[in-house]
Amino acid sequence: MDLNDSIFPLQAGFARAFAEEWIAAWNSHDLELILTHYEEDVELRSPVAVKLLQGDGRVRGKAALREYFELGLKAYPHLRFELVETLWGIETIVISYVNNVRGSKTAEVMLISEAGKIRGVWANYDQ
Questions:
Q1: pLDDT of residue 127
Q2: Closest by alpha carbon to 57, among 44, 69, 72, 73?
Q3: ∠ CA 41-43-47, rounded to 5°
Q4: How many structural domains are present in the chain?
Q5: Domain holding 30: CATH number?
Q6: Is 34 inside any structural domain?
Q7: Is 110 a member of any domain?
């Protein structure tokens, strides 16, 4: 790949469009659409995963992520996210949102691959 073709450093337009598409995918509850945003070897770390999966809070690989997200969508059939803010760095995007189930703020730090998909994500909650 030519260095001029790189998506890095990320730009505001890419970060905002990615965040809006990601939120819309979650609000659609279409699991396959949600998963299009993630790499096959993705790793997610989340306090919610600790509770739901009774483990260390890490979800490794897209197949495991599919199962985890499916559990969440079944548990919260009316789940909706409202985008609050999008921040970006050289290869990361932070999506801050409020979900209607708990009314709490969440910020997800997403490490983006050259393909423009999430390869790592750290979920952070206010309560």
A1: 77
A2: 44
A3: 160
A4: 1
A5: 3.10.450.50
A6: yes
A7: yes
pLDDT band, very low/low/confident/very high, at 4 (cuts 50, 70, 90): low
Strands 58-60 and 92-99, sheet pairing: unpaired
β pairing state of 118-125 and 58-60: unpaired
Q: Is the pLDDT of residue 46 over 70?
A: yes
Specify burial of residue 38 (Cβ count, 10 A radius: 0-12, 13-18, 19+): buried
Domain of residue 14: give its range.
7-125
Tell me whether residue 2 is in a domain. Answer: no
pTM of the predicted model, to two decimals?
0.94
What single-letter amino acid sits at 100? Answer: N
Q: Is the pLDDT reported for residue 3 higher than 50?
A: no
| Amino acid at position 98, single letter | V
Is residue 1 in a domain?
Answer: no
Model confidence at 57: pLDDT above 60: yes
Closest to 92 measured CA to CA, from 3, 8, 5, 6: 8
Structure tokens at 63: 């197949």
With DSSP H G I counted as helix, E B as strand and the rest as coil, what are the percentages for the chain, rounded to 5?
A: 35, 35, 30
Mean pLDDT of 19-47: 98
